[in-house]
């Protein structure tokens, strides 16, 4: 797969996930004492904790991926950024100290989000840093 295709696919998936996070039937009720932004709080597909800020974050990465997929260099930068940011988010999701697992109370990153972020980061890092990338 080309890095441009990767950016388009990730962008589309992030955008779909963002939209799904805003659909009440796609999220199960959920609360967490360390999350202070409770608007849109729920478990997407009954597994992944989300709130309105989490959905906006996904939408931003989705739009960025769709735009970045139009050029090789932009797609490569996008892949590297997704890999690095999602690695950081996965690590934060493991650390309840200072409420890092909820991004200081703003965005839930714990539970099933941790392994999902690890998988997303690993794939993105592969496409962002592989030496034989196809244009």
TrEMBL record:
Superkingdom of the source species: Bacteria
UniProt cross-references to Pfam families, sorted A to Z: DUF4383
Spans through the membrane: 7-27, 39-65, 77-98, 110-129
Keywords: Membrane, Transmembrane, Transmembrane helix
Name recorded for this polypeptide: DUF4383 domain-containing protein
Source organism of this protein record: Caldimonas mangrovi
């Amino acid at each position: 797969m080309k890095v441009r295709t990767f950016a388009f696919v990730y962008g589309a998936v992030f955008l779909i996930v963002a939209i799904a996070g805003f659909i009440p039937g796609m999220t199960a009720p959920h609360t967490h004492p360390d999350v202070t932004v409770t608007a849109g709080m729920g478990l997407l597909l009954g597994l992944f904790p989300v709130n309105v800020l989490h959905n906006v974050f996904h939408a931003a990465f989705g739009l960025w991926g769709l735009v970045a997929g139009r050029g090789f260099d932009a797609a490569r930068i996008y892949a590297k950024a997704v890999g690095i940011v999602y690695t950081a988010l996965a690590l934060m999701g493991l650390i309840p100290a200072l409420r890092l697992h909820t991004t200081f109370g703003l965005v839930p990153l714990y539970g099933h989000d941790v392994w999902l972020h690890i998988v997303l980061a690993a794939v993105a890092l592969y496409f962002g840093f592989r030496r034989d990338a196809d244009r």
